[in-house]
Amino acid sequence: MGKVSLPELPSGDEFEEYISAFFQCGGYHVDRKLIERGEDEVLELDIITTDYKPNRAPDIRLLEIKSGGWGISDIFKVKGWMVYLNLLDGKFVVREERKYLDFFKEKAKTLGIDLVCIPDLKHTAERLKPYTDLGKCSDRETRMWRFSYWVERKLLQRLYALKKEKYSKVKRYSALAEYVFLINNRTFFTENIILRVEELYRAFQKFPNVSAKCANESLGNPFDEEYETLPKEIFNETYYECKLNDIAISSFIKHRARLAILKNAIDYTIYKNAGDEAKTKATYSIKIAGSELEWSRINFLPHSFRDGLAEIGKEPYFYRYPVFWQWFLWYFGGFVLTDIQEKEYELFSRCTGIPVDEIGNALAAYEKLFPMTNGWFVELGDNSKLRVIKMMSVPFMGIGANVRRLAYTSTGVFKDIGTGGKYTISDLIKYNNAAVHLLE
């Protein structure tokens, strides 16, 4: 990926990302770094994986990752989290090999925890094979997911640094930090999915047009005014010049919020079909003339959203859409190369488990749940053979550009991808450079 490279011996956050990539490539939806804050305590989960298979409830598993020292207390801590989250399956992945490892594995197994020790990272795929399906993915996919996680980490680090530096001067960084916390952390710990979707929608509606607000504030305008679009100079700077700015952060967060809503909407449909009322029943009730009237709270979500969800729920592979959209946004960069669409769809299918003939339905799910004037995708024209989701975070488009460079060439050179259009390759290179600039 140009000037930047991954560490050969990852540790700390990088080791968590390294392990996450194997589960992502194994077909799971992956949530990372989930935090619940109490008055005195902070609960932080490394990884939650969700396995989506046909005609069954999502299989949710907890993963704790340790690149350094660990002991029996860590195993009991994992068990405590499993009890708290009502999960039966936990994984504890460590790098440091300890004496009497079999003893620790046996104790962990009695608690419903698989202890996986990987002192030599060359054996990672082999050690994780019993717990995830890695047959369809290569080292290329796991490495590119690590780059994607790195982009996410750097964007959030940039956000928190700017918030600390300019807290008293501007509003946008505090707003974006709050938005991230709401969509990634607080809602996860709400067990009932209807209540979770309600919370996500409240967060979504609390920050309308947040990218436009951020852009206007960066030009000296009030953050709290109503803005519909990006100012032209900021739009050009972001999407034509591909400069690293606040829109790279805000657009990432906004799409992440939509993905969280999409995932939970799909979960609701699956659990509803399975008759799981604990996760899907939430009502409002009032008493009138001695009679109690009750309404499902889902009826108070936007009508267009409910109609879209009903339509999506009839599609044969709807249960894989959360996995598909993680891959499409954060790995494939939110775009399609239109003149080699058949190859693109074959690649999407291999990575996400959705048949080629159903990729169109998967891509249409965004529009069905979040209707947008003129649709969510824009064609860049004959000179650039790209169909791009609107308001995408450009550094992730750089990830997608490199995915194509590695997937479609034997040389590793952008011009050999095999796509036409006068500016297609130069656009891909600009996206790549934006990602490299962030990671340098």
How does the overall form come out from the CA principal axes?
globular
State which percent range the strand residues make up: 5-15%
Main β-sheet, spatial strand arrangement:
1-2-3-4-5
Q: Care to count the β-strands?
A: 10
Element string (H = helix, E = strand): HEEEHEHEHHHHHHHHEEHHEHHEEHH
> What's the structural domain tally?
3
Describe what you observe in this structure.
There is one protein chain. With 440 residues, the protein is α+β, with helices and mostly antiparallel strands. The protein folds into three domains: 13-141, Trna Endonuclease, Chain: A, domain 1 (3-Layer(aba) Sandwich); 170-301; 303-440, no CATH class. The protein has 17 helices and ten strands. The strands form three sheets. A five-stranded mixed beta sheet has the order 1-2-3-4-5, with helices on both faces. Strand 2 (42-51) and strand 3 (59-66) form a beta hairpin. Helix 5 (139-166) runs antiparallel to helix 16, helix 7 (193-206) packs antiparallel against helix 10 and helix 10 runs antiparallel to helix 13 (321-330). The mean pLDDT is 93.
Q: What layout of secondary structure does this protein have?
A:
Layout: H1 13-25, E1 29-37, E2 42-51, E3 59-66, H2 72-85, E4 90-94, H3 101-110, E5 113-117, H4 124-128, H5 139-166, H6 172-184, H7 193-206, H8 210-218, H9 232-239, H10 246-273, H11 277-280, E6 283-288, E7 291-296, H12 303-312, H13 321-330, E8 335-337, H14 341-352, H15 359-369, E9 377-379, E10 386-389, H16 394-408, H17 424-439
Parallel strand pairs: 3-4, 4-5
Antiparallel strand pairs: 1-2, 2-3, 6-7, 8-10, 9-10
Helix pairs in contact: 1-5, 5-6, 5-10, 5-16, 6-10, 7-10, 8-10, 10-13, 12-15, 16-17
